[in-house]
Amino acid sequence: MPEYAFIGRSNVGKSSLINMLTSRKSLAKTSGRPGKTQLINHFLINKEWYLVDLPGYGYAKVSKTTKKVFQKFITQYFNLREQLVCAFVLVDIRHEPQPIDLEFMQYLGENGIPFCIIFTKADKLKPHAIDMHVENYRTVLLETWEEMPKHFITSSSKDIGKEDVLEYIDSLNQNMVDAPL
Ligand code: GDP
Question: Which residue ranges does the record assign to the EngB-type G domain (predicted)?
């Protein structure tokens, strides 16, 4: 069964996004406090694909040991990644590109792992500011990448971007049916 992994810095809005995509408010736990999603969870969607909820990275308030454990889970998952089709890297649309996110994308690229960017919390910015932030991201990414990775603009609180992400996943699933690896 194809898998799609969701990952990002703690508090980026991953649980809320997963709940929006799955339309089940209580599926992934959300909290105002970072650090709640700690293990890898697989959610079967439409009996067609797995949504893989990976631990957050970049916690400010956890010990070095905990950070290492999270890192181990993440790298173990990506090392195996037998069924992984695409990783979705979540970034908060309001922030400047953060070194930790750029490094993580670099890691995915170096390991040949396809990924997309999901900009979260778009409701917090006006449309022109959204464009500006995405352009800013593009400029920074183009310093190391040949092109801007595919990206989505979402807001879990305003239900924005859900169909775009789900349709993209469907299209990738369809491609695999048409042309299995
Ligand atoms: P996680 O740690 O990445 O799983 O983040 P959560 O989903 O728990 O969200 C962290 C905080 O951001 C919570 O207070 C959420 O209510 C808030 N949040 C998440 N998504 C959105 C969004 O799209 N818009 C707004 N305004 N707040 C959001």
Answer: 1-175
